[in-house]
Amino acid sequence: SITEETVELLEPYLDMEDYNLETAKKVCGNVAGLCSWTQAMVYFYGINKEVLPLKANLALQEGRLAAAQMELNSAQNQLDEKQKELDEVQAMYDAAMKEKQALLDDAEACRRKMNNATALIEGLGGEKLRWTASSKNFQNQIINLVGNVLLATGFLSYSGPFNQEYRNLLLQLWKKEMDNSKIPYSKNLNLIGMLVDNATVGEWNLQGLPNDDLSIQNGIIVTKASRYPLLIDPQGQGKIWIKNKEKNNGLQVTAMNHKFFRSHI
User: Fold this and answer.
1) Which domains does the chain have, with CATH numbers?
2) Is the alpha carbon torsion for 70, 71, 75, 81 positive or negative?
3) Rounded to whole angstroms, how far apart are CA atoms 74 and 80?
4) pLDDT tens per residue, range 75-96
5) Looking at the whole model, is its pTM more than 0.85?
């Protein structure tokens, strides 16, 4: 209830030299308390006059702070919602990028396979002529197989005792008979190549068999014929070859003048 008018009315008294607690105590102790109280109220009025606007401003600012806090909370909620949406979109983006990378990897693998296939096709394209010739050759071999086998079996069965010249003559006679009977056979038939491979011939040569056609034919007859061969071998080449070839098979060698043969004569 203190007003500015009341304070102005008190100012003349407050300005007096003897308006203080010490002087008042000399006059009357009860009045001294009242004097001190009036001074305190005037001082309080001056302080409160400065504080009230600050309080009002504080209340205003607190109201603004509350409003700002509400806006902040609302913005934070929106931010949380947007962050959630962003996380979902980021997850979708990551999944899409992963799928994209997988597709790129598949495409690259497919591209490599296509390049390899193209290179293979181009490389195999050059083999077309050879394959065509080989296919035709195989077809001819199938057609001529019966006649070729007939010549090979005739060679194994009947040409053993004869020399190279007579063996060739036998083949020519057999081919003539097959022509008359319209039995197909290969005109350029190589009996050695048909009956034995090069690796086996090479092994025979290492074992001591000569490399000429007659010796190789004899080796074929010895190994392929169903009957036991009789070797007429004045130079001893066949004997050396047989010993080396059968050395690891427990071969036993004897002669007609061995004691086991003589005891039965």
Assistant:
1) 4-79 (no CATH), 190-264 (3.40.50.300)
2) positive
3) 10
4) 999 999 999 999 999 999 999 9
5) no
